[in-house]
Structure formats: C-alpha cells, structure tokens
Design goal:
It contains 15 helices and 25 strands. With about 500 residues, the chain is an alpha/beta fold. The protein has two domains: about 375 residues, 3-Layer(aba) Sandwich (Rossmann fold), CATH 3.40.50; about 90 residues, ANL, C-terminal domain (GMP Synthetase, Chain A, domain 3). The protein has a nine-stranded mixed β-sheet, with helices on both faces. Strands 16, 17, 18, 19 and 20 form a five-stranded antiparallel β-sheet that branches.
Length: about 500
C-alpha cells in the first residue's frame, strides 16, 4: 500500500486556526493558518473549475509573497504541479521554461506586466492571471470572490509530483528537476530535527521563494511544524538586521547562502544588533568562508552549515548545532535516510581526506528531469545522483565541500580548488568580496585569476595580495592575474556567477 500525501494546510488550520502563519515584513500583512488554508482552498476550487486537474502544471512569477504558499498548498490539494519561476530571467529564458513545462495557467505579480507581454508574444495561447501583492482587490481576488473556502484534497501518492524547479545550467537550457511529495516530506522531517524547528519557530525568509533554498530551508518545514514565517519581499541587509533586532518579531531562525550573511556583517548596523533571540543561522548553497562563520559565531550564534541542491529537495548533508564550532567549515554528515559516497574518476571510493565527486541517494532525491531522459541518465549511476561537487571526508565522517567540479582548474598538473584560495584571501580585511577562476595559460595550462571588490574607502595593492597568498598557499595556487571590479555578478540567491566572470575582459 502506497503512502498518500497529507494536506498540511488543512491540518494546521484545524490545529491552530488563529495563529499567525505568515507575516509579510514589507507589506505589513498577517495571515493566520485558517486564512492560509482558506485562500489555498479558494485557489484550488478556482483551478478545478477551469478544468485544471492532477498532473497539469501551473506556473508562478512573483517576488516573495504569501502567494507562494497559498498556491503551493492549492496545487497540492488538486494534484497540480507548481512551477516557480526565477524573476531575474529574461523573457526568452522564461519563454523556454514555459514552453518546456507547458502550464495551464501562469500567475504573475503585477510588477512583471512588461515581461509578461513579451512572453505572450512568444506564447500567445498561454493563460495568465495577474495579482497585486500590495492589495487584495486585484484580478485574482475578484476571480476568487465566489469560490468556496473549503476543498477536500484529492488522493495523491507520495511519488506524485508537487513541483518542477528549473535549475540554471552552466551551458544550454535549464533543466526541470522533478520534485515529488516524498522529497518534500523527507526534507521537512530532516530539517525540522536538525534545524531545531518547532511550532515556536519564527523564521526570517530572505532568500527568493522561487529557489529551493528560500522555499524549503526552512520555510516549508516551519509551516509543517506550525511555526511562523516573516517574509521579506527582497533581501536587504539593513532591513534583515532590523527585523532580527525587532522584539515584536522575535526572529529565532535565519537561513541564507554565504553572500547575504557577508553583506549583513559588513553593514554598519551589524555590531549594534541584539542577536539574543536568534537560535541559529543556517548557511548552504556554496562553500562558506570561515571568516563569515566565525564573525557570526562571535555574536553567540550557532552557525550550522549544510549542503544540498534542488535535486536533493534540498537537504542532503547537515551539520548539527553541537558540532558547528569544532567542525567549522564542514557541511556535516548525511541527513536521515540518506546515503553519500565520494568516488574518484574510476568510480572507486576515496580514502579519508582525499578529494572526489560526491554522490548521493535516498528518498529525498529527484526521480529525474522533466521531459529530459538524457539528462536523467547522465546524472545517475546505479541509483546514485552525481552531484558534480568535489568533497572529502575526515576521519570522523564529516564531509567538507571542496568546490564545484566545474570550478576546479588544473595548474601545472596540480588540482586547484578556488574555494580554498578564496577562503585564504578573505583574511584580508580590505576585501568586501572576491572570486577566483581558472584561465588559460601557455606554460601551466591554467592559472588562477582573482576578481576583487574592495570595501568602501579601503585600498589594497596587487603586490600585497600576492604577498599574502605566497605566505599561506602553495605557489601553484597563487593567482597570477588580479582585477579590481565594482561588483561580482550573482544569481538570485547570491551565488557568484563564475561563468560570467570568464567572459569578462580585464580593464588593465
């Protein structure tokens, strides 16, 4: 007998109807669990009334707003597959994704009206529904006015899809990772335990909700446990610090990728904020410089690293809070019900402290990619997902993410991991942010090129950077090119787009 999907929203509406589920920090709006389920049910009835049924796709283009959860729960009730869209993409990029998943309906934030017009030129038959996040008397509200606030969820198996999340590939078109209810559930179970998430949790959501890090670390687990979300429409370091400092909000949890944590600690308000109510800060998405972790730990905060990807729902490896200080820099150990291994290029297991590719399997792993059997076959070997991340484990089994396989370069026959070099360079207090990439070299094959953004009113000479590197790194790891720039190209979650850096021409 197969396990069935359970209606989280309906359950919490029954258990704690008047408790505030979501606070919109930007709009100053509050939504109770009863209201959240009511809105989800109205949308579910609306979808069903337009013959949108189980297995169909519905897309969403919006900045952070309660609509993400209203629509997510609505789709789950009907058996519809939600497709969250990255609002930083261009009209042609979004048109490709929409053409690939072929949604029956696209909900969009009215601030994206212009790009929607461009998309409709490419996809004239696409049905759209506009909503205004700043008021509830928009087209969507009007459409839902006569809909019932009650809906009985259809029977869905845990293996049925709840979502398609498109990943930004380094080349070619993005791939739609299939997310099923089982992945969703196991991620919630794992992060609730490891992140200390309960009904008393109040999480500040700063990452974009179209991304798995924003939606599932820890937002969905918080709602599953009956806690509360405080949502920022867009990340702002000063605003985030003010929210943490606000006793009326009483933020207990924060999850981010390294960049937002870095921007917050560089904000003048950082040293003036009361962090006593913050129980822990989770960080993942990319290797985090130790200086960032230590800076937050100095505030008495447990900073716990994790590792995952869209295809792992996302939690795959997580560092328990009690190990955060002694295992600084580690992503931790595999989450419950999940197995990992590290292999060399011949598929042999590597020894402790040796670097290889990280593979993972478990109930939290994607079954594959939407309409892309080729990508699915290439990404799996004997049921193990090939992550493309380079990692090593210590003698206690704690895993350290060294770098992305695609970011590693070979200089004079030696492997160089940019994350290691970057970690050393962040010791220079004049540097705000930086990135290292491999560039062609006639003598060594490849050497490192460093891009540096200096802090305001700070100066640093190339010679000083090289001197610091020579003292702390093997010679083959020392960058041979250095370029000072104003800003690093990043994606919506704050990850540095190193492929964009490779296309940049030096201005010196």
């Amino acid at each position: 007998m197969s396990l069935m999907h359970f209606d989280w929203a309906a359950h919490q509406a029954e258990m704690r109807p008047n408790k505030i589920a979501i606070k919109d920090y930007t709009l100053k709006e509050e939504i109770s669990y009863l209201e959240l389920n009511s809105r989800a049910s109205k949308i579910a009835n609306y979808l069903e009334g337009r013959n949108i049924k189980a297995g169909d796709r519905v897309a969403l283009l919006a900045k952070n707003h309660s609509i993400f959860f209203e629509l997510q729960f609505a789709c789950a009730k009907v058996g519809v597959i939600l497709v969250p869209l990255n609002w930083r993409l261009t009209a042609p990029e979004l048109s490709y994704i929409l053409g690939d998943c072929n949604p029956e309906l696209l909900f969009f934030d009215c601030s994206f009206g212009t790009i929607i017009k461009e998309i409709l030129v490419a996809l004239p038959s696409l049905r759209v529904m506009e909503f205004d996040p700043f008021k509830r008397n928009d087209e969507l509200a009007f459409a839902l006015k006569s809909e019932s606030p009650e809906f009985s969820a259809v029977d869905m198996n845990l293996d049925d899809l709840i979502m398609i999340m498109y990943t930004s590939g380094t080349t070619g078109h993005p791939k739609g990772a299939k997310i099923n209810h089982k992945m969703h559930l196991f991620n919630t179970i794992n992060l609730s335990g490891l992140g200390g998430i309960t009904s008393k949790t109040i999480q500040l959501v700063v990452l974009p909700l179209f991304h798995t890090g924003g939606l599932n670390c820890y937002a969905n687990p918080v709602l599953h446990q009956g806690g509360q979300l405080v949502i920022m429409r867009e990340f702002d370091p000063t605003g985030a610090l003010e929210a943490i400092d606000d006793p009326n909000l009483s933020i207990t949890h924060l999850f981010a990728v390294p960049a937002p944590l870095q921007f917050m600690m560089q904000d003048p308000k950082f040293d003036k904020i009361n962090f006593n109510r913050l129980e822990n800060v989770g960080v993942g998405g990319a290797p985090c410089a130790e200086i960032i972790i230590k800076k937050w730990q100095e505030k008495g905060i447990d900073v716990i690293q994790g590792w995952g990807m869209t295809e792992t729902s996302p939690a795959g490896i997580f560092l328990a809070a009690e190990d955060s200080a002694r295992k600084i820099g580690s992503a931790g150990k595999p989450v419950l019900h999940t197995s990992v291994k590290i292999i060399d290029k011949e598929s042999n297991l590597v020894k402790a402290n040796e670097v290889g590719e990280l593979l993972i399997k478990g109930p939290n792993i994607t079954p594959g990619y939407w309409k892309n059997d080729k990508a699915t076959r290439e990404s799996f070997v004997d049921g193990w997902l090939k992550t493309g991340d380079l990692a090593k484990s210590d003698n206690e089994g704690f895993i350290y993410i060294v770098d992305r396989e695609k970011d590693m370069y070979i200089s004079g026959g030696e492997n160089v991991y940019p994350a290691e070099v970057e970690n050393v360079l962040y010791q220079l207090e004049e540097i705000a942010e930086l990135a290292v990439i491999g560039v062609p070299d006639k003598r060594w094959g490849e050497t490192g090129k460093l891009f540096v953004v200096l802090k305001k009113n700070k100066s640093l000479k190339k010679e000083q950077i090289i001197e610091h590197c020579i003292k702390n790194l093997a010679k083959f790891k020392v960058p041979t090119e250095i370029e000072f720039i104003d800003i690093l190209p990043r994606n919506a979650t704050g990850k540095v787009l190193k492929r964009n850096l490779k296309d940049m021409k030096a201005d010196n």
